[in-house]
Amino acid sequence: MGMIGRMREDIAAARLRDPAARTAIEVALLYPGLHAIWAHRIWHALWRRRFRLLARAGSQITRWLTGIEIHPGATIGRRFFIDHGMGVVIGETAEVGDDVMLYHGVTLGGRTRDAGKRHPTLGDGVAVGAGAKILGPVTIGAGTVIGANAVVTKDAPADSVLVGIPAKPRARSAGEDTRALLTAPEYSI
Known about the structure:
This protein has helices spanning 3-17, 24-30, 32-48, 52-66, 178-183, and strands at 69-70, 75-76, 81-83, 89-90, 95-96, 101-103, 107-109, 121-122, 127-128, 133-135, 139-140, 145-146, 151-152, 160-163, 168-171. It is an alpha/beta fold. The strands form 3 sheets. A 6-stranded mixed beta sheet has the order 3-6-9-12-14-15.
């Protein structure tokens, strides 16, 4: 899929996940989460080609413009959406699957200064509520929902719900809607 096709796919994903998104042009022009991921693709390509200083400089410019910090070394899947992205931080060794959604203030951060894998891996279809912190080289299984302000420091199985400090997983009930889980008061702190 080419660059224009990926951008269209991103716009469609934003419109699907954000009920406030009215038109494709509005989303393309006014959604900083999309601008951050589009820029990240450029900086990530430079990072992989070993233009590390240029990639880091570009990612910092994107941070200044959008309020979203994505390290150029991070690996991001398709149809990734950041809603109200201010304050999102994604570390260098983070891996994000396809169809993942983050709200504002989310951190995919490290817990050590050691070299190597030190940031989270999010499986496909993960949704992360506002202010949640996922720290260290943990793996979050596909389809998991992480509640607002949760602090995750341990692996989580697929299709679970994580809430609290420290976050504790529970299995998702049949038919539980991701959007409903992220807005339910009992899943925020």
